[in-house]
Amino acid sequence: MSNLDKTVTEFKEYMDKVVALSHLQSFAWYDAITAMPKGSRESWNKKIALIGAEVFKLRTSDELGKMLEKLSQHENELDEVTAAMVRCEKRDYEKLKRVPAEFSLKKRKSELKAQVIWEKARNDNDFASFAPYLEENIKLTKQYANYIAPGKDPFDALLEESEPGINAEILDDYFAKLRSRIVPLLKKINESAKKIDTSFLNRPVNIETQKKISELMMDVIGYDLNRGEIRETEHPFCSSFGKYDSRITTHYHENRFTGSLFAVLHECGHAMYEQNKDDKIANTILDQGIQGAMHEAQSRFYENYVGRSPEFVNFMFDGLKSILGDDFKDITADKFFEAINAVEPGLIRIQADELIYSLHIMVRYEIERMFIKGDVNVADLPKIWNEKIEEYIGIKVPNNKQGVLQDVHWGMGLIGYFPSYSLGSAYGAQLLSAMKKDLDFEAEVSKGNIAAISDWLTDKVHKYGKMHLPQEILLKATGEKFNPDYYIEYLESKFTKLYGL
User: d(Cα 395, Cα 351) in Å, to the nearest integer?
Assistant: First the structure.
């Protein structure tokens, strides 16, 4: 065995430990959110933080640094997967090496504590109790940004971590287009004569019936339950532990059954991205989808571009009605399609319609820019939030529970991440445009052949995992760099037609 082959073997064995501990940390967090007794949370938070500290040590050790340096010098002699592993880990190594281990542990403990405080504060509608913990998270996040990218604008550093290749200049231009074209369109819709009946969506549907709807959606969309499961949580999400274990959660509202229906489609999109990765990268550090907008593009694709299309509604509607029973016998597929696509300005981001969704993200983006710059006091965030929601979406915020406290992200320390949710929809529209050049999207969905859609996404995106950067994937899949016009034109076309404007 040559010295290079020996180093490759040592590197892969070393990274196996990193993957195993990372999955254990993620699984402990998943269990804490979905099943763990509340009285166990604080004890487990300490254990989760300590596992994270061990992962951090492994990923910043001098031993790993020497391996990465040697392997980088011989990248052209490595196979495709090993070379990608080295590039991927070296990027993270160089960034994490700048962060003191004691600071990383302090930051993680702060985030875990803030999540617990946020949950209570949200339930109690008590922003003041959460404010000091948010302030601490912001302070530590700014320090972290300065560690990983000294001399760089802290917000750009945070964006680069979530969305390599995206910066505030690109986002400012993107959100300016949304503001100039979607906000006026929303006003036209609100003033239009056409009013879509959505009242039947609020008819009560018991939880057991909704679980059958979840089973229908998972089956139609192609989510593999042999390598996954579904649980219930307050806020739906997907947790993946590699290609062979990707799990989803949902939340059932008895008076809004479509909330779970689309949550399941959304989280299945995340999970299927993970399940469809190439076998050759399974159980390696590449065995995860690209976090951020590319991952969100997959979930929004199945939720909206497939799930809210007239073709999908027509295909699955008979099955849905048979589950819903006589209480919905008066509802047609056309009526259901219009109702699930109706524009209804609301306060809650995860319940927002397609048109308004990115306006919610714009509010968060603008506020994050302000507090990272230090242009605003944390105590003033509810007032600023409420003003922006009224300006862009046209409704008043009655309380902080439905306003500034609705998202857990800032409690988790996820600052600079919100733009990914909107970019995901935009990437999805760009992928859809490219897909339509290769296959008849509407015809395949009409037949319920979602596998054809998934096969295309697998070939262009899913199979790579983390082998490439997101902008590289987007360019390979669509033939061009990020172009927000596809998304804005999709929204304008769909909702202009829906409302006869």
Answer: 15
CA atoms within 13 A on the CB side of 298: 32
pLDDT of residue 158: 95
Phi/psi of residue 246, each to 5°? -135, 115
Say if residues 398 and 415 touch (Cβ distance below 8 Å): no
Alpha-carbon Rg of the chain, whole angstroms? 23
Give the CA dihedral 265, 269, 271, 272, nearest 10 degrees: 120
pLDDT in tens, 440-458: 999 999 999 999 999 999 9
What string of H, E and C letters represents the secondary structure of 233-278? Answer: CCCCCEEECCCCCEEEEECCCCCCHHHHHHHHHHHHHHHHHHHCCC
- The percent helix, strand, coil of the chain (3-state, each to 5) is 70, 0, 30
Q: Considering only CA atoms, which of 179, 186, 339, 188 is closest in space to residue 257?
A: 339
DSSP, collapsed to helix, strand or coil, labels residue 231 as strand
CB of 44 within 8 A of CB of 25?
Answer: no
Per the structure block, which two tokens stand in for 78? 């490595």
Render pLDDT for 19-72 as a digit per residue (tens, 0 to 9).
999 999 999 989 988 988 888 878 888 888 889 889 999 999 999 999 999 999
Span 419-425, mean pLDDT? 95
Pairing of strands 238-240, 230-232: unpaired
Res. 80: pLDDT tops 80: yes
Across residues 308-333, what is the average pLDDT?
97
Q: Check pLDDT > 80 for residue 133.
A: yes
The per-residue pLDDT for 285 is 96
Structure token pair of residue 497: 């037609």
Q: What is the 3-state secondary structure (H, E, C) of 413-468?
A: CCCCCCHHHHHHHHHHHHHHHHHCCCCCHHHHHHCCCHHHHHHHHHHHCHHHCCCC
Most distant CA pair in the chain, distance: 76
Q: What's the chain's average pLDDT? A: 95
Cβ-contact 430, 487 below 8 angstroms = yes
Residues recognised as catalytic: 267
Report the distance separating Cα 269 and Cα 303, nearest Å.
Answer: 7
CB-CB neighbours of 131 under 10 Å: 18
Contact (CB, 8 A) for 250 and 263: yes
Q: Return the ∠ at Cα 123 (arms to 263 and 264), rounded to 5°.
A: 5
pLDDT, residue 229, reads 97
With cut-offs at 50, 70 and 90, classify the pLDDT of residue 271: very high
Q: Tell me whether residue 262 is exposed, middle or buried, using C-beta atoms within 10 angstroms of its C-beta: 0 to 12, 13 to 18, 19 or more.
A: buried
Predicted model pTM: 0.93
Give CA–CA dist 287/420, Å, rounded. 20
